[in-house]
Amino acid sequence: MTRATLLAVGMLGVLTVSLARAQTPADMLARYDREARQANAAFQGFSAARGEQFFRARHGGEWSCSSCHTESPVQTGRHARTGKSIAPLAPAAEGRRFSDGAKVEKWFKRNCNDVLSRACTAAEKGDVLTWLTSLRK
Q1: 17: pLDDT strictly greater than 70
Q2: Domain chopping of the chain, boundaries
Q3: Alpha helices, DSSP H, located in 40-95
Q4: DSSP for 104-132, written as a single string
């Protein structure tokens, strides 16, 4: 194997291990903080108030986050189109939420596209997660 191939295989292994590692909402917030600061030098931190407002807003489309996750994300939600039950989104009500970075990114990608017709920014994800972690059951 060439040196470049070995390096690529090694980096893939490190990435796989880091994604498989159990995470916490605080880990996810630290990641989003780094990403938000890289994207915007004027970034001043996350806001639970902005997160709640973002969660409830329709953003010009038909759906908001609360369309499926309910106005109270400590409760079980229901998908707006399929009717499928969705476990509570708030970590206080569902301890496994935000514990798998790859899964978190998968669902943010899908749901942000449904609600915003674009990807969420790291600042938007961080604001929503900050609000969700402030909720108590």
Answers
A1: no
A2: 23-134
A3: 48-56, 66-69
A4: HHHHHHHHHHHHHSSPPPHHHHHHHHHHH
User: How large is the angle between the packed helices 3-20 and 101-116, nearest 10 degrees?
Assistant: 80
Helices and strands, number each (H, E), in the chain? 6, 2
**Cα 125 from chain centre:** 5
Assigned architecture for domain 23-134: Orthogonal Bundle (1.10)
- Residue 119 · residue 113 · CB < 8 Å: yes
Look at the pTM and tell me if it is higher than 0.85.
no
Name the average pLDDT for the chain.
89
The answer to whether 125 and 43 have CB atoms below 8 angstroms apart is no
Of 59, 60, 46, 54, nearest to 73 by C-alpha is 54
Half-sphere exposure of 41 (CA within 13 A, CB side): 0
